């Protein structure tokens, strides 16, 4: 009988504890004061800034000028989006293979770094509407005659950022990929003959050649269709209004002509349409 009473008392205590937990803020959507938790947009507005992840090593998208200031097409796009949302843009630089993970982990509110849409990424991140479109170029040494198409990459080596769409495409065509951290390093490896080729944005390669016109490199193939460039944010129910606000900002700077002007400034042509 004594044992039965002890069990009953323990059960009653458990029920009471559960009831108290239900009344005391155990719901994730509420704070300890019972108020609904702020969604992502409200958090950003309260902080007065958007934290943007970017490489800082991929001209003309995001790079450092002679005075070591972070500049580039994506940097200015980020600032304009922040302006339209009534907050400041705070850029945090990191290596490419950690940028998207930084969004998932909450280190960045978004990544603006020439990110191309892909089906695999769309399963993990929420994407904004596109703000640019780019084609992928197959780049080889100027004297190379063996590689003339993407299919020729089978059994070859390329240099590309780990986790990039360029790495995935190269591997899909049968290449072995050597990881790199910057476009400069990538093209140096190609020119030195340490890899056979690289894949990169056509506009980035043209920008590099404008600065290094004597570089012994050439483009031998381009993807048929342009890929949409988007802004990834963390996939969450709390981010819907945040993504909507970013899309609204993109639409406004496109309508004002500012987005096209930035594209011409950095790429010499309008890649926003």
CATH topology of the largest domain: D-Maltodextrin-Binding Protein, domain 2
The helix tally amounts to 10
Distance between the termini: 81 Å
- Helical content stands at 25-40%
CATH class of the largest domain: Alpha Beta
- Poorly predicted regions: 1-36
Number of domains: 2
Give the overall pLDDT as a whole number: 88
**Largest sheet, order of strands side by side?**
4-1-5
N-to-C SSE series?
A: HHEEEHEHEEHEEEEHEHEHEEEHH
Indicate the structural class: alpha/beta
Q: Identify the CATH architecture of the largest domain.
A: 3-Layer(aba) Sandwich
In CATH terms, the superfamily of the largest domain is Periplasmic binding protein-like II
Q: Find the count of extended strands (DSSP E, 2+ residues).
A: 15
Estimated radius of gyration: 24 Å
What is the beta-strand fraction?
15-25%
- In one word, what is the shape? globular
User: Largest sheet, described in full?
Assistant: 3 strands, parallel
Q: How would you describe what is shown here?
A:
- The protein is of the alpha/beta class.
- It has two domains: 134 residues, D-Maltodextrin-Binding Protein, domain 2 (3-Layer(aba) Sandwich); 89 residues, 3-Layer(aba) Sandwich (D-Maltodextrin-Binding Protein, domain 2).
- Helix content is 40%, strand content 21%.
- It contains ten helices and 15 strands.
- It has a three-stranded parallel beta sheet. A three-stranded antiparallel beta sheet has the order 6-14-8, with no helix packed on it. Strands 12-9-13 form a three-stranded antiparallel beta sheet.
- Helix 2 crosses helix 9 and helix 3 packs across helix 9.
- The longest helix is centred in the first third of the chain and has 22 residues.
- The N terminus is likely disordered.
């Amino acid at each position: 009988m004594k044992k039965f009473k002890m069990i009953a008392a323990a059960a009653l205590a458990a029920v009471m504890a559960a009831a108290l937990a239900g009344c005391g803020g155990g719901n994730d959507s509420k704070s300890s004061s019972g108020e609904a938790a702020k969604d992502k947009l409200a958090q950003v507005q309260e902080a007065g800034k958007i934290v943007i992840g970017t490489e800082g090593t991929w001209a003309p998208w995001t790079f450092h000028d002679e005075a070591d200031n972070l500049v580039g097409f994506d940097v200015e796009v980020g600032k304009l989006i922040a302006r339209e949302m009534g907050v400041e843009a705070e850029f945090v630089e990191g290596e490419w293979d950690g940028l998207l993970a930084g969004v998932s982990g909450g280190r960045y509110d978004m990544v603006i770094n020439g990110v191309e849409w892909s089906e695999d990424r769309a399963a993990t991140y929420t994407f904004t509407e596109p703000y640019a479109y780019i084609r992928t170029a197959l780049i080889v040494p100027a004297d190379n005659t063996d590689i003339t198409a993407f299919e020729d990459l089978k059994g070859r080596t390329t240099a590309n950022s780990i986790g990039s769409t360029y790495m995935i495409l190269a591997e899909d065509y049968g290449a072995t990929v050597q990881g790199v951290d910057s476009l400069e390093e990538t093209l140096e490896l190609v020119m030195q003959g340490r890899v056979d080729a690289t894949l990169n944005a056509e506009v980035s390669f043209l920008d590099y050649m404008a600065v290094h016109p004597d570089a012994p490199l050439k483009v031998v193939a381009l993807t048929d269709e342009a890929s949409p460039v988007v802004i990834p944010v963390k996939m969450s129910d709390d981010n819907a209004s945040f993504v909507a606000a970013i899309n609204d900002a993109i639409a406004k700077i496109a309508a004002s002509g500012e987005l096209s002007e930035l594209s011409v400034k950095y790429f010499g042509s309008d890649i926003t349409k």
